[in-house]
Amino acid sequence: MKYNRGQELKYLIEIGTLDALFTHATKNRLEYTISSQPFYSLEWYLFVSTKNSHFKEIMDSDNPLENKDFTFISLIGDKTTQNIYNEQGLKYYNLKSVTEAIRMLNSGRSSLFLHSKLAALSAIYDLDLSDKIKIHKKEYKKVHFSFLLSKKHLMQKKLLNNLIN
User: Fold this and answer.
1) 71, 83, 147, 149: which is closest to 110 by C-alpha?
2) What is the pLDDT of residues 106-135, one digit of tens each?
């Protein structure tokens, strides 16, 4: 979901126009919602092209982000990836879509792409590149998702027990 659309939905949940949202339960969101236990997680992994001249070195490395000679890709608005790159002092290209990032990896114009496993693998399979783009073994981040119910929901008390348990 695009950032602006996500912000609009957040506002509608906060004021009680909408009832619920499926997202990461942050401290801010818990001020106006009640959260279920997490029931889904997105994991962030690195992706690399088999065409990359450093493919074996990357795949054998415990943490390829330590090598500042590689080139990296992020997506515009992907704060999770950008924060990880920034913590490592890495420079990166910002692209518009996962598909564009996977194509750039496959073309050899960049070394590594850090993104959610689900989204990246989906694009890799859609582009029929599963034999050319591989996932590195290290999990860089895991974000848990929950069902968030607005505290202004009319049936809140009846649903609360089911939601929390």
Assistant:
1) 71
2) 998 899 999 999 999 999 999 999 999 999
If one counts the domains in the chain, the total is 2
DSSP labels for 28-42?
A: TGGGTEEE----EEE
Rounded to the nearest 5°, which phi and psi values hold at 119? -65, -45
Tell me the β-bridge partners of 25: none
Q: Is the pTM of this model over 0.85?
A: no
Q: What per-residue confidence (pLDDT) applies to 163?
A: 56
Same domain, 110 and 50: yes
Verify that 89 and 16 share a domain, yes or no: no
The tokens for 130 are 């599963």
Is the domain of 51 the same as that of 18? no
| Domain shared by 33 and 47, yes or no | no
Query: Which of 10-19, 36-45, 102-111, 127-136 is the least confident region?
Result: 10-19
Do the beta carbons of residue 138 and residue 45 sit within 8 Å? yes
Range of the domain at 45: 40-142
